[in-house]
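User: Can you recover a sequence for this backbone? Please restate the input before giving your answer.

Assistant: Of course. Working from this structure:
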């Protein structure tokens, strides 16, 4: 009930009192008229609330950062009495908002609601309730909407970067030659052909078959590109910079993976902590899976990134390039990166920060460059 309805009820009671006291027809007429207004408003509002169907949905649950992420509200009601307003109340990542809806009955209405896509991540929107008001604005009833919470994902949008080098001084062809000369890993045998090296002849099998047989060796797989991303809360001078740094971390990882997988190079991206997972692919069609994994990250891990780097040393035998993406540099991280570099792979560090000229970073960057580690700055958009 609104204030207008309360005032009308007082007026109705007053008219009824005067009608009974003075037997005036005018007072009877006004009392009945006001009561009809109240009854009409209550019935139309109640009918509209009961006959209302409303739902929220997303035509696309996944969008790139910066693209539009429209949500749709569909509404239909079967109340034949006129209504003055239907208002939808819904929650978005930016807070609670309202939207006026058309009130004509027996018609399907669809209203588009823009959702924020400024940052990478998983966000939710929920249609909470719908308020119905009668023609005279005497009554307002709310209808709670259940099971109308939906999640949409804002995916990282990669940017152009320079291609990382694969194992400085060894672009893969040398590894191929070494594997072909590795006589400890034969894959199969075949008949001898003129021009085959004598040292590839399988003498024991040749004597048994009474013909020359040579070994065939397995072809080497190209070295991996190992992407190590810091999933702890980003180090920022201002709290409002944190989501921008998270975007920079995710989009740098996707940019590196995309560049490598387009050439058929295998990419590995392990994620440590409570959301432990690992992305492995050597085809460009695996990029959507990587984007989904990064969009689901919460960046609430507490594990020391330097410890994570030391744990990944066991992978260095098959790694040609190690890409380290972080928002911080300290002694532990520098030690982990230099240990990776000493084991053979090329190493590149992407430092996501808004203060690249911070004097506290200079000693660490100098130490990394001394060990032939490439350091790149990434400034969040």
């Amino acid at each position: 009930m609104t204030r207008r309805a309360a005032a009308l009820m007082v007026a109705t009671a007053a008219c009824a009192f005067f009608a009974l006291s003075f037997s005036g027809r005018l007072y009877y007429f006004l009392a009945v008229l006001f009561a009809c207004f109240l009854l009409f408003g209550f019935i139309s509002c109640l009918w509209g609330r009961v006959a209302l169907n409303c739902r929220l949905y997303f035509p696309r649950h996944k969008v790139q950062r910066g693209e539009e992420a429209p949500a749709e509200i569909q509404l239909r009601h079967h109340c034949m009495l006129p209504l003055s307003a239907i208002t939808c109340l819904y929650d978005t990542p930016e807070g609670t908002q309202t939207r006026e809806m058309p009130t004509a009955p027996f018609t399907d209405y669809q209203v588009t609601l823009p959702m924020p896509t400024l940052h990478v991540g998983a966000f939710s929107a929920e249609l909470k309730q719908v308020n119905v008001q009668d023609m005279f604005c005497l009554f307002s009833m709310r209808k709670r909407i259940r099971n109308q919470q939906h999640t949409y994902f804002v995916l990282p949008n990669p940017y152009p970067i320079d291609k990382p080098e694969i194992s400085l001084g060894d672009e893969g062809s040398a590894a191929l030659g070494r594997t072909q000369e590795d006589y400890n890993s034969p894959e199969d045998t075949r008949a001898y052909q003129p021009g085959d090296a004598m040292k590839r002849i399988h003498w024991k099998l040749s004597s048994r078959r009474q013909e020359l047989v040579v070994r065939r060796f397995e072809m080497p797989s190209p070295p991996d590109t190992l992407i190590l991303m810091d999933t702890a809360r980003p180090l920022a001078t201002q709290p409002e910079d944190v989501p921008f740094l998270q975007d920079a971390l995710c989009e740098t990882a996707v940019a590196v993976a995309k560049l490598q997988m387009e050439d058929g190079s295998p990419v590995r991206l392990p994620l440590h902590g409570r959301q432990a997972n690992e992305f492995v692919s050597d085809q460009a069609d695996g990029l959507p899976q990587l984007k989904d994994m990064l969009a689901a990250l919460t960046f609430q891990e507490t594990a020391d990134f330097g410890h994570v780097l030391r744990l990944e040393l066991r992978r260095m035998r098959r790694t040609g390039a190690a890409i380290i993406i972080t928002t911080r540099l300290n002694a532990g991280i520098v030690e982990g990166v230099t240990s990776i570099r000493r084991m053979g792979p090329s190493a590149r560090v992407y430092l996501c920060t808004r203060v690249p000229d911070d004097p506290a970073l200079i000693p660490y960057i100098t130490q990394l460059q001394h060990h032939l580690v490439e350091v790149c700055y990434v400034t969040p958009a």
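That completes the design. The two ends are 50 Å apart (CA to CA).
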